[in-house]
Design a protein that fits this description.
alpha+beta, nine-stranded mixed sheet, four-stranded antiparallel sheet, about 30% helix, flat
Amino acid sequence: MYSIAKENLNSLYAAIAAEYDLFMPIKSADQTNYGFWKEGAEGDIDTLKTIRSGKDAFFPQVEQLYTVNREIVPADVASGDDAEKAADTPIRTKLNVTPGKLVDQDFVIFGMRACDVRAIEVMDNVFLTDPVDSYYKSRREHGIVVALACHEPEESCFCTVFGVDPADPSKAKADVATWVIDGKLYWKAISEKGEALTAKVANLFEEADADAKVEEEKAYIEGIAKQLPNADLSLEGWGAGKTDEKFKSEVWDKVYKGCLGCGTCTFVCPTCQCYDIKDYTTKDGIQRYRCWDSCMYSDFTLMAGGQNRQTQLQRFRQRFMHKLVYYPTNNDGMFMCVGCGRCVEKCPQSLNIVKVIKAFAENK
């Protein structure tokens, strides 16, 4: 295990950024969100929750898939170079398709909390299952995840309900686990990619015999997590095979009321993966790109002949059934919620996943 003083973290960021693109929590205008670090940026690993999660590193909000350029060329002249015939020759259109560039260089995602690392596992089951998404796959292959323990989980957190350990990022499927204790960042490589990254910046670290100190920190974090308001949230009745029981429940008729369909919950959620594909017309062709979308929007999957979810109740039900029933049914019981609490904090109507789970528990 290694350590570095917190006041020297900018040197660590600079050293990493000299070798890789560094994607990490950046504070700007009193808000902390993920972005690329550059000299002068304020890296912020003290804020527990970024506005959006680090999933942007693997599934960006907007991504170009390919471009199509239209080229006007004369049709072949059948009989030689006769100028008069060439002048009357019809023209034809040639389309040149250029795929979007796949990520081919390693990059580092620094400071991901254990819940957000678990969220990437959820995304893997979607984008790395046949047919594999090549854009996502290239980012996953080149991304190096540095996970960070949650020194003080907040009241909106309930990750332990879904089996996430906020105290021990070494249990997460990351490459490096880190803890901030008494003004120092403790660093432990847990994969080959993590070892390779560590070797690049080893000169900035001190070797640390800190196992006892880390264990004490884990116990402290676990103590807080057990006392959080939603630590005892029960998932009884949810999960694989519960489609008919939950879909037909009358609870949806009550709990959805007040939903504005604003989509805030889906845009801050680290596991939502709905997207739309759009074409942007340019002077000589089109650019096809995908961008995040939301199942909470009235025009989501809208078709010329109508759609199957025409009311906000249906859209609201779809979101939470997907998280708590459909996804675990298709993924060996794994839930599509990681308990990060962002929707708890951001929903303007407090119609979050905790409220939904509790509403069904009260209706037993």
